[in-house]
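TICKET #2291
ISSUE: user wants both folds in one file
ATTACHMENT 1:
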Amino acid sequence: MRPDVEAMKADIEQSVALLRRRLDWDVSLRKLDELNARVEDPTLWDNPEQAQAVSRDRSRLESQINSVRELESGLEEGVMLAEMADEEGDDATLEEARELLRGVKDRAARAELEALLSGEADGNDAYLEVNSGAGGTESNDWAGMLLRMYSRWAKAHGYEVTIEAHEEGEQAGVKSATILIEGPNAYGWLKSESGVHRLVRISPYDAAAKRHTSFASIGVSPVVDDTIEIDINPSDVRTDTYRASGAGGQHINKTDSAVRLTHVPTNTVVACQAGRSQHQNRDMAWKMLRARLYELELQKREAAAQALADAKTDIGWGHQIRSYVLQPYQMVKDLRTEVETSDTQGVLDGDLDQFMGAALAARVGETRDAK
């Protein structure tokens, strides 16, 4: 085989071997058999909560095992195609084999990173909240750009995105918004995005075409399922209702259907206006509040908790985790991992994997190149 094909083959084999070791392959296969047997036992469903937990564990383990098997199958197919192309001197088929192996290599790299998602809530869905910083229209527009960026990233990875709260800016963008991102490992991938994001560009709202710096903050919380107990004293929570804004027809503008909850001891505030009724919004707001308080508890267990708390206290200079520079040059740079790219448009369109991967690897002490 050609040297480049041999190199890709070796890289994929190394990734597969690493994934097998992390899974403890033989043990995982036996555990999956046990979980399959439990799921098929009708008496399991006498306890719905336990049944859901077993079903969730089974689905996650099955997905991990199938991922490794798909990598092995793709590697075998690509190598066979490359060997056949070499024997027949078929350059077109050889390029097809290269393309197939490149895809397998990319999937293997992502699978390696996903194997690091072993945190308590990494597999959960996530709430992502964006808030504009000081600066009026400029910061509101930047917050809107970030909301679009994360929505596009989520949809590109097959996640479901639902707007839970949305407060529009006076002229453009958003003052604040919260979206629910549903899919495997959503919180695990997104948790490192919490912090302040800085934009430098020529303002489209400045007639003098001067360069402006804008800030917006991102906060990420895991969706808390019924197996996690979060004890909230109702007397610690203040409830406010108000008229929802934005799209929604006449009904949404005539009733106080939106709900805002404030957890007084921690000064944690959540809001929901996506539902058709105050009752729906109240239920969703309570779920969001449980998620936020659970995230606060997780932060206490992590060494980065103080840095994250500091980032949330001031949406401005000195607290940013990533800079997006559109003028006088094109560069997006993560200030924690030093990962950078000149493809600013690609990043703003949702190409964030290299930043998330590097942050995830750094967070668990890995040194492998996230790219």
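ATTACHMENT 2:
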Amino acid sequence: MTRKTPAQDKPATQAGKDDYGETLAAASILVVDDEPGMRNFLTKTLTPRCKRVEQARSAAEASDILDRAHFDLVILDNIMPGTTGLDWLGEQRRVGFFAETILITAYADLDTVIQALRAGVADFVLKPFRANQILNAVARTLDRKYLRRENYLLKHALSESGTTARGRLMGKSPAIAEIRDMLNRVAPLPTSVLFTGASGTGKEIAARTLHGLSDRAENPFVAVNCATISPDHIAEELFGEIEGGERRKDGLLLHAEGGTLFLDEIAQLPDQVQATLLRVLEDHRIRPAGAEREIPLNLRFLFATNADLEQAVAEGRFRADLFHRINVLNIAMPPLKDRSEDIVELAAVFMSEFSRTLGLPALDLNQEVLLKLSRYDWPGNVRELRNLIERSVILGEFPTEFSGAGEVTGAEAIETLELVEQRHILNVLDACDGNRAEAARRLGVSRKTVDRKCAAWGI
């Protein structure tokens, strides 16, 4: 008869995942205790389940370790030679302490509990304790930590809802295929990327796509529009602050730890913040306002701008050293007029999306409407097309300049080879200002072929 394996007999990594939550697997924990037996017990219990576990024999050694590395959680003994854990914790908060804390002690009097709460201790475990007790405390603390981070990032995303891009990178044009190929090539690398291009070309969507292709995909993607945050507050929003050693604000960079930070409208950063960002990029460490300690940072940076950064550098509005630091790899997003083959697909996707989300009937995308959409220049790029479709669904009709009563509609209008060919040839003609000989050259066909097609279309 085969005996069922109890939880404590499972492989440690499996037990940690099944019984204590997946948050332990990515956690870095520092154990601070002067008793070797307790340090070794905690290290042996946590190491199979956590990403990294280190131990310190004293408060002084713990301070040195925190100067070199960042931890998600500190398990802290209260009674140690020369100081108490709570006194040490108070000192650390004044210089810059951004980890969660679990206090372990054999002396649980009311005064100690009150001091622990005032010091911001997340949980309190009495000695002696069993392995499952400390593991449960660690799991609870980390769950609360990540829940607070998710709530903070959700509020940030909602505050930027007017400028935050969603969705996927769509289209099959050669221009967008080249962008996809580049994103796939750089996704596994830690290299910073600068996305350039006119407003509405999909820079943030491309950045989100890059994040999704990378090994950071399960971690946060934090988008920050530098133009929407007050210049007086952007430093604390990005890098965080400590006020009087009591109040602590984790900046967006710390909340994005392990993931990707996307800084849009990078040209709008104030001079002082540009200097701070340059140091962060070079040292991979941040120092929140009011803190004495720098915090190591594991973060990939992506940037975007619709401005001419080289001109901004020449005019003294943007630091040259920062420009050269972020301009390692430049991905220029093409305007919609240069990827006209994608307009029909985008229009169909947006029509389906807004009909569903608004609860209103979809409008017919017949061949005349699609032809007019594909021949328009779209100075506002994909954003303008999206807004036009949304407005048309709400009003129940297309604007006059895009309306039409074609007989072919739906998938047939989108996919029929003859209509696809017509839209493509007319787009090339438009790009050549009506010069049929040049259009024929670009299309790789004879001038007579273009003339014959145009005659058949009544052009």
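RESOLUTION: both attachments delivered.
EXTRA DETAIL ON ATTACHMENT 2: Residues 131-159 form the longest helix (29 residues).
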